[in-house]
Amino acid sequence: MTPASRLFIGRTAELAALTDWWEQARSGGGAQLGIVTAEAGGGKTALLEEWVTRLQTRHQGPAPVIGWGQCVELFDADEPYLPILEALSSMCHGPHRDEVIAVLRRCASSWLVQLPGVLDEASRAELWQALPRSFSRPGMFAELDIALTELSSAYPLLLVLEDLHLADRPTVELVSYLARRRSRVNVLLLGSCRPAEVLTKAHRLRSVIQDLGTRGLCQRLRLEPWSAVDVATFLADWHSPRTVTPELAIEIAERTEGNPLFVVALCRHLEGRHLDDEGRLVLDDQVVRAAGRLGALGVPDEVRLMLQRQIDDLDQADRAILAVAAAVGEEFAIESVGAGLTGQLTVVEVEERCAALARQGSLLRSSEPVEWPDGTVTGRCRFTHQMYREALYDLLGPARRVQVHRAIGARLTAGYGGGSEEIASELAGHHERGRDYPQAVAELTTAARVAMSRAAYPEAHDLVRRALSLLEQVPGGPGRERLELQLRRASVVAVASVWGWREPDAIVDCLRLSELAVAHEDVSAQVTALLGLHNIAMVRGDGKAREDAAAEVLSLAQRTRDPTAGLIAHLLQCYIGSRVGDCAAMWEHARRILELAPGRTDPELALVLGEQPAVAAHQLGAIALWQLGHPDQARRHVAAALTDARTLAIPVDVARALWYAAVIHTLCGDAPRVAELAIELEDLSVEHDLQLWRAGGSVLGGWAAATLGDVEAGLARLRTGVAGWARFARLGSTFHACVAADAFLSIGHVEEARSAVAAGLAAVASDGERQSEPELLRLHGELLLVSGEPDSAERELNRALVLTRQRSARGWQLRAATSLARLWRQQGRTAEAAELLAGVLEWFDEGHDTRDLRTAGVIVAL
Q1: Are strands 218-222 and 331-333 parallel, antiparallel or unpaired?
Q2: pLDDT at 836 over 50
């Protein structure tokens, strides 16, 4: 018999396709991402390993730098970027080790510092000290992009990521990011996945592959099952020198449906006991009763039977080793298995037995050894298929599982020491199954913190929810309360990161956090809880609850004189000023924020806020300044906000800054600039799945397009944006109603304009969002005039004018005065019109290039 690991059957066309991808990527002329798809056991790994082996032996020139990472499904939660880190680690142990480490140190230190066993402890500690407290996802992406660019300029570069259907969300997003970098010329990202799992789980990988495919940046290669000829060829090699009858080959091909893994498993099952010297099937009551029955057996059940038979054939020591290995994970360290065996075998004996099993190639494959932080060097192996692991794990009884997981957790904790946060999710799984619930909750909290430091916010949220579900198992007392406070705060921060304020758990977390924070006199946690309650009220359109939360923060700041609480209090009061249309108060609070927080604030509070206070102050201050009659200053502040947001490189912050900039330029009537900002906003929002801001870009971009002459396309875009925004937020809808009504009215779509104004005024009445109220009244007056009701129009325009004077909202006042003056001129009241407009215009000492000032100037000059 030829060992299965040495057999490679067919796939000539597939190997050629991979070579074509490699040459295209190296020349910069083809897709940079290639995905090999097949169902479980379909031969993905075998194909990739065979092709890489041929590449290494036949490549001309400098040896390629090859990174190989494996996506795995952990017991409880995903470690962000685990396959990427594994791929980088393998590159650091390859033929160009020194060059790779040097480039990572220079260009991607936030990645290098996370690679175990690459740097010595002193170098790693020094590098940690030089890094920021937390990593932003865009920053990490950019670092890796730069590093790969530099490496690929010197060496051909290949990144292989197996089983992407198991990848965590950050890894998928990073793959998408790298594939979109058209400047890459010598990089091939080669992945594998199971298509059925991607489809049934609605995995993000599905949309990434589809989107990149439409852009010509991704190619797919689906592995078909082995044909009957392939199966016959494999059987002939496997059973050589004996001859296998064609009938048996056909039966095996039919029963396994050509799945390579199932074919191999069946061959092992039949080997040495079911075939006679003529290659005919020998009857065996435990399997089938006669030849010709194989095709009638269901593959999944029969595979399970074959797995159990293989396990039964192992000796007792190997079964014990593999059962504990299954508790460690799909890939396992020999040292962990030795600990789980609790003295039954030495680590050396475990290592030797695993090596022997890996050489057989049926259950295990060898992996690269690893060095733990405590200096332990341990070999590693991986199960050849998840089904083997599941069947072996079932061998452990309930009591034995608890014992095994506790022992594994204790050894990992000792081995990693102070660096155990790197494996916090893994440790949490072992502690939970070992019934050590306090430690499981603590490790999940650590894992959530690590995920947030890597900008893996949805994963952090999942980890926190998992920890909270285990909290009930932790005994009560002060220690539990402190642990719960940390968890509730982390949960609120995680909710904020995904803007999940509509989730039922959000208000429960905020209220409980507030209760715990008061009990423990934790001011920072109190601010976090109150901010969360404010945001929940905001997305629900509950103005009273927003004001109550803001008032509590203000009271807390006054009692404690805590500077952060004071900063947040100013920001919430700024929001309230925006809501009620008090532009003077808005600007005063924005000005104070800019004095108190010229740079960053606490990163967790910034997440709960949804933005950095200084950036928010620039944006809200710009809105206030435009209303107060300072359009030039408003434009300078949104420009500053956009610059700061780009520096922070957090996509949602950049999107928000682009929207505010587009709002100010819309108010100034600068359609070309709005069009530019809207396109950038929509592109960014599509890339990062920011649906709210994509809708906002559609509204303002549609207005700009219609204003610039592309009327029908612009209005269609505007309508789509208004509807999209309404699905996610009520805040901002009154301003969008103004923009829509203005666009519709300017081209004579009176009914649509009337509907937009009615919707805006209804929102003012129901939500109390009064900032755009004067403009809605003015537009209502214009519509009454179009409808032939000049007296009603004049009354409405006067209402708008009076309201703007009460608020000192000179930006809106100029518009109301211009509309009223135009009406008076039509009625022959020229002197009154001129006097009204002149009185407003004389106040403005800037912004003379804006549409409103130019229009008013023309009317005065008539």
Answers
A1: unpaired
A2: yes
